[in-house]
Specification:
CATH class: Alpha Beta
CATH superfamily: DD-peptidase/beta-lactamase superfamily
Number of strands: 13
Number of helices: 13
CATH topology: Beta-lactamase
Largest sheet: 7 strands, antiparallel
Distance between the termini: 26 Å
Strand content: 15-25%
Shape: globular
Radius of gyration: 19 Å
Number of domains: 1
Helix content: 25-40%
Length: 388
């Protein structure tokens, strides 16, 4: 496997781990990047952006990163909070009156950002095409009754998170999440990141490949945690099944490869970026830039920590960011905050190491928690930093 890009000699173990992912773990096309103290120290890519045409992964190849997008939406909301334009503890209905329906009058933005609102799934059958219509999805969510008393439990709002927090951002700023993120975060930092892809960039996006069950790690079949989640996903009566089957996100990757979905705004699930830009964003956050140190202190303070009503296992969330838990891990000793996405992508910041990390790929992986490819990379990374 030819690996392209640049790598500070200190991080040669990461380059080797990246190469081994292709040889040992079925990687098809991917990129990984690291920033420390705001400077790039590693920027690698390799493989195929489109396995069908054998189009190579290039320096500017973009990838759809699913729930890794949630961290970007969190940054937008936190910017408004830091500027004094958004009160995280005021009722959402103060900004969005329709949201008060069905007993939701006291739900706060803080609860939306930490998956406590009880709105993780649509009650009514909802198509992927309907999800491209912001007015449609927000009106459905505004009318729903919470699945649990808000604030008493938390459960992963896999796609609804983006439209719930996003509508708050839109009501405060007058801009959709994609517009706000582009103008307030992407442009000042010179990033290549999109929530709502411009049509002229469609040809740069890597084609996603479905999970390869032939390469399934056999240990997952014996893992009690994996079995617990698997049982819920397969149970049509479970909340887990309802979250991931409406719309039909478990049916494959074809919809996410479509120009229509890439151009839409799913602020929890369809962000498109390079590893380089993902790393740069989190590298800036790791150095207490973009957001103040006080805001970041609050953002990575656990808001919830315990059994997840959707993911079954223990999860921890700050203000929009995932924190190390039974499901994900970032740095050693429980350090770091960020977000991972279905299939394996991830972006995170480690403020202790003043480091940002980004990884994107097109071969969807199937693993419990942090993807095995990512784990190989981060273990090599922290070994290079003398913390392995």
């Amino acid at each position: 496997m030819d690996v392209h890009g640049s790598c500070d000699p200190r991080f040669e173990p990461v380059r080797q781990a990246f190469s081994r992912n292709f040889d040992d773990l079925g990687e098809v096309g991917a990129a990984v990047a690291v920033h420390i103290d705001g400077q790039p120290v590693l920027d690698l890519w390799g493989g195929l952006a489109d396995a069908g045409t054998e189009k190579p992964w290039q320096e500017d190849t973009l990838a759809l990163v699913f729930s890794t997008t949630k961290g970007w939406t969190a940054v937008c909301a936190l910017l408004l909070w830091e500027r004094g334009e958004l009160d995280l503890d005021a009722p959402v209905a103060d900004l969005w009156p329709e949201f008060a329906a069905a007993g939701k009058g006291s739900i706060t933005t803080r609860q939306l950002m930490s998956h406590q609102a009880g709105l993780p799934a649509f009650d009514e059958p909802t198509s992927i095409e309907e999800c491209h219509d912001l007015a449609c999805v927000t009106s459905k969510l505004a009318a729903q009754t919470p699945r649990w008393e808000p604030g008493t439990a938390h459960g992963y709002h896999a796609i609804t998170y983006g439209w719930l927090v996003g509508e708050v951002i839109r009501r405060v700023s007058g801009r959709t999440v994609g517009q706000f993120f582009a103008e307030e975060v992407v442009k000042p930092l010179g990033l290549d990141m999109y929530i709502g892809l411009p049509p002229e960039l469609h040809q740069r996006v890597a084609t996603l490949l479905p999970m390869d069950l032939n390469n399934l790690n056999p240990s997952l079949l014996l893992d009690e945690k994996a079995q617990a989640i698997g049982a819920k996903i397969l149970d049509p009566e479970s909340l887990t099944f309802q979250v991931f089957s409406n719309p039909a996100m478990l049916s494959g990757v074809d919809a996410f490869n479509s120009a229509e979905l890439r151009a839409a705004e799913w602020p929890a699930a369809n962000g498109i970026t390079t590893a380089r830009s993902l790393s740069k964003l989190y590298g800036e956050l790791a150095c207490d830039r973009v957001l103040s140190s006080a805001t970041l202190d609050a953002a990575e303070t656990p808001q919830v920590d315990g059994p997840d009503q959707v993911l079954v296992l223990q999860t921890r969330f700050g203000l929009g960011f995932a924190l190390p838990s039974e499901v994900v891990d970032y740095g050693p000793m429980g350090r770091g905050f960020g977000h991972d996405g279905a299939g394996g992508s991830v972006g995170f910041a480690d403020r202790h190491a003043r480091m940002g990390f980004g990884y994107v790929m097109n071969q969807m992986g199937l693993s419990l928690g942090t993807d095995e490819r990512v784990r190989n990379l981060t273990e090599a990374l922290y070994t290079s930093l003398g913390e392995g």
